[in-house]
Write a structure and sequence with these properties.
Helicase, Ruva Protein, domain 3, elongated, Rossmann fold, 12% strand, 504 residues, 3-stranded antiparallel sheet, alpha/beta, 3 domains
């Protein structure tokens, strides 16, 4: 249908246009997507076998939908992509307030225009992007905001009684007629406001104050909610929950690979960062592992969840930490280092809810513990763990490195070392490069340097070396000597059997 040539109701009828409810529209378009083996939810990763099939079933059933899941599980993103299932354009009575269908008008204004102009009624075309409305539920949201209220100024101007529909100022929901309406964080909506939604969901009509008013609204409702909200800030009243046809559970990425794909898609990097900062796969894995460790940490409230935004922000900070070093050293380009991970701590501390034990440690300390655990759990991918060597009674390939530190040597890995100084510092440690060559013979260049640094961090995680925060850097030394050295501050103290060894 060529919409540019259709400007009146008569022309619309001549072209065979037929009205369709929004739920039928979504259903029909989804069927076409499925038949063509196309995905209307591009960019949603990790839900292909779980959430998306449930969503497709709900759309085919013409249901209103509740997405239930912890923060950072792409609930709002999925809701916004629902517009891909709408027709590209629909006709509306020109200048109508409620997106009136020319063949099935809803408002008094549209009905009067049709009665007056008949087949010559002007129509305009509404793009699908204009048929999406989103409202964040907050305690100050009122019935008037969502549904509407009487406008006394309009009543006085038009000299009409308050009972006349023409004096009503319609809220967001009526204005979303023939569109998608989303309420985010539904439990935050006061119970009395939730009650006002009963009739809209069940009978598709509204009531404003005490006046009789029937508006058969045609709306696809989508709600999002966090299970934590049910106990902490509010709840979804039972009759309203009963009226929402399908409840779809979302979840966090189930694997590191899926999580990496999400982070790479969502991370906002400049072209300069992409060109001048070279990442390595091990750093990608470590960033994602931090989030996985956080979701299972005894220091973090599991009910609150750990948003996927943690990994995204952490990766952005990781790149920026290396970029800052590159700029300070006036280098054309640089590579990511394991020590750059500590630049992501601000990305972690603001995105975790601590339980009592976590509060006792403090958010920065918990973030350091998470980084340490991520390093430890990735160590076995590249090197045999000290524990596995003990079980097989094999001689430890790490012993020459440990012996060098036992002789009183130490390594100060400064955060802003130039790439040349970084390489020289690591190569001064006897056998460090040899161990990397032995277990990762195919790795060369800067990636080898990275694994040499990673090996030091890994040995400290297994309490074979001490790792301590110094000014603008990290110091590695013998574990035993560090235990007998008076720490300069509480933060520098390390205990071999305590997780305080993760202090940076």
């Amino acid at each position: 249908m060529n919409i540019n040539s259709i400007n009146t109701l008569g022309e619309l009828k001549q072209n065979g246009y037929k009205s369709k409810s929004i739920k039928d529209e979504l259903r029909d378009n989804l069927i076409n997507f499925l038949k063509d083996n196309k995905n209307p939810f591009e960019g949603i990763i990790g839900f292909e076998d779980t959430v998306i099939p449930d969503l497709q079933t709900a759309v085919l059933s013409r249901h209103d939908i509740l997405f239930l899941g912890l923060r950072g599980q792409a609930k709002t993103k999925i809701a916004r992509l629902m517009i891909n299932l709408l027709d590209e354009y629909i006709p509306v009575v020109e200048d109508s307030e409620l997106n009136d269908d020319p063949l099935n008008p809803l408002s008094v204004y549209a009905k009067e225009i049709l009665r007056r102009d008949g087949e010559q009624t002007k129509i305009s075309w509404l793009h699908r992007s204009e048929r999406y409305t989103e409202k964040l539920a907050t305690p100050d949201v009122s019935v008037a905001d969502l549904i509407g209220d009487v406008d006394p100024i309009k009543a006085a101007t038009l000299k009409l009684p308050y009972s006349d529909e023409r004096v009503i100022h319609f809220g967001l929901i009526p204005r979303s007629h023939r569109g998608i309406f989303v309420i985010n964080e539904l439990p935050d909506l006061q119970a009395r406001i939730q009650v006002a939604l009963f009739n809209i969901l069940q009978e598709s009509d509204i009531q404003i104050r005490g006046f009789k008013l029937r508006l058969p609204l045609d709306i696809q409702f989508i709600f999002t909610a966090n299970p934590e909200d049910y106990t902490n800030r509010g709840s979804i009243v039972t009759p309203l929950k009963d009226r929402i046809d399908s409840q779809i559970l979302t979840h966090y990425p189930k694997s590191i690979e899926v999580s990496k794909r999400i982070t790479q898609q969502e991370a906002r990097l400049t072209e300069e960062q992409k060109q001048k900062i070279t990442p390595d796969e091990i750093l990608h894995d470590l960033v994602e592992q931090i989030a996985f460790e956080a979701r299972g940490s005894e220091y973090i409230d599991a009910k609150s969840g750990v948003s996927a935004r943690l990994s995204i922000s952490a990766y952005e900070n990781l790149i920026s930490t290396a970029e800052r070093r590159r700029i300070l050293n006036n280098e054309k380009e640089t590579h990511l280092r394991v020590s750059d991970l500590y630049g992501v701590i601000p990305s972690i501390t603001g995105k975790i809810e601590l339980v009592y034990e976590g509060e006792q440690e403090g958010p920065a300390k918990v973030a350091q513990i998470l980084i340490g655990k991520a390093i430890r759990n990735n160590f076995m991918k590249f090197f045999p763990t000290p524990d596995s060597l003990k079980k097989t009674q094999q001689p430890s390939p790490y012993q020459p490195i440990i012996d060098w530190f036992k002789k009183g040597n130490k390594t100060d890995l400064m955060i802003n070392l130039t790439d040349i100084d970084y390489k020289e510092l690591l190569q001064k440690i006897p056998q460090l490069e040899s161990v990397v060559k032995k277990f990762q013979p195919s790795v060369n260049g800067n990636s080898r340097m990275l694994l040499m640094e990673f090996l030091l961090f890994g040995l400290s995680e297994y309490s074979l070396l001490s790792r301590t925060k110094i000014e603008d850097g990290i110091q590695f030394r013998d574990m035993l000597s560090s235990m007998f050295t008076m720490p300069e501050s509480d933060e520098d103290f390390e205990d071999e059997d305590d997780e305080s060894q993760y202090n940076i």
